[in-house]
Design a protein that fits this description.
The chain has 227 residues and is an alpha/beta fold. The protein contains ten helices and seven strands. Helices cover 46% and strands 18% of the residues. The N and C termini lie far apart (39 Å).
């Protein structure tokens, strides 16, 4: 069995989950205090990152791991409403048609379609249901007494943590032939996933991934615009 693994942020759509959450919270007024706490506390680290005192990988990982702060205290129904809003108003309008054409091409060939992302599982499940994914791999949110705690459960689906979660999925799908499978991603931190498969594809890659993909002779779709 052949699978096609697609990253979410920056790959399937031109955006990022944290920006979608920020847009929702600013628009609806929900959890604005936690949103500003998250944004300001992490933006405060930017000078350390620019000065080389905080490595880029660590900086990005903090942004991804602590994004769950923005959802603290939401009930499950509120979280569901939030993710539906983000899908309709932020993600869906930003889906990349050229990547969805690859998605549909894999579907037509009977390949298993899997979204693998550091984003939150509830959002990925919603996106997966809309796009017809066979499975999703993401970051799990901790729930206590029917509310989100503002923490994640288990490893962050980032870098090696993404591979760890993906390997758990593969263990339950032993028929997938990785040597014949495909992976689409935009970040150098997705290398562990890209190098798992026989057919890696860089999608609007960051400069590091673009350089690496060129050296390896991997297909490259699109060019990431300058910041």
């Amino acid at each position: 069995m052949v699978a096609a693994f697609f990253d979410f942020d920056g790959t399937l759509f031109r955006g990022s989950t944290w920006r979608g959450i920020a847009l929702h919270h600013r628009t609806t007024g929900i959890n604005k205090t936690m949103l500003w706490l998250y944004l300001y506390s992490h933006l405060a680290l930017y000078p350390l990152y620019k000065a080389g005192l905080l490595k880029r990988r660590a900086y990005y990982k903090l942004w991804a791991k602590n994004m769950s702060w923005t959802l603290r205290g939401l009930t499950l129904s509120q979280a569901e409403e939030t993710f539906h809003w983000i899908w309709e108003n932020y993600v869906r309008p930003r889906l990349r048609p050229e990547i969805l054409s690859h998605w549909e091409e894999h579907r037509s060939k009977g390949h298993k379609l899997i979204i693998v992302s550091g984003s939150f599982e509830p959002l990925l499940k919603l996106v997966g249901s809309r796009l017809g994914a066979d499975a999703i791999v993401g970051t799990e949110l901790e729930i206590r007494n029917g509310k989100l705690t503002g923490r994640i459960k288990g490893p962050l689906c980032f870098g090696e943590g993404k591979v760890q979660k993906l390997e758990a999925l593969l263990a339950s799908n032993p028929g997938i032939d990785l040597s014949q499978s495909y992976a689409y991603a935009d970040s150098i931190y997705d290398l562990p996933v890209l190098e798992l498969v026989g057919n890696p594809v860089a999608v609007y890659p960051d400069p590091e991934l673009a350089s690496y993909a060129e050296k390896k002779g991997w297909p490259i779709i699109g060019t990431k615009p300058a910041p």
